[in-house]
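Archive transcription. Copying these from loose printouts into the bound notebook so they stop getting lost. Printout 1 of 2:
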Amino acid sequence: MMEVSYDKRTEVLQVATELFEQGPDWVTFFREVLGIDGVVRRAFPDAMSLATFEKSPEYDTIQHMLVKLRAQSIPPSDSQEPTRVITVRLPQSLHDSLRNEAHLRHTSMNKLCISKLLQVINDELVPAGTS
């Protein structure tokens, strides 16, 4: 496994913490920290270093910050971050399972699915192909 510099991990966490303390909405935090042009991707631009960082305690702390921000508010309507809609084809049994899980967690399916999409996925668990 590739070694990721402790200093770089610490710097990324420091930037994330400073932003978190300003109390942004979760979308802004995600965009600035974890988004395509965010501090994490700039610090760890290649797949191996990013994957290694995603297994670090610093990344876990950033994920917990994101969860706290998501619990606090609905993101404001922002021209810098328009909302997009995706359609996902899934079997009825998976849909039923998601609906049930959302009900048990006292949340919406939308919030539950966004939470699931924000999680790191092991590449071995994603099948190759187009559908």
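Printout 2 of 2:
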Amino acid sequence: MYLLIAGFARDAVLHDPDTFLHIRVGEWILTNRQSLFRHLFVHRSWKPMIATDWLSEIILATVF
């Protein structure tokens, strides 16, 4: 099932350029035990961030 979703499906999860950003944010949340309040991994680090996808990012980081 994973191969179908990740490798063969059109517009698959791993073909999205933001997937690895979400994985990295999930790793950061797991390491620091808090949510992000500003962008750390993009060029707009001064801009405030509301991590609305925090749970899916933790799941992605754990699975990755």
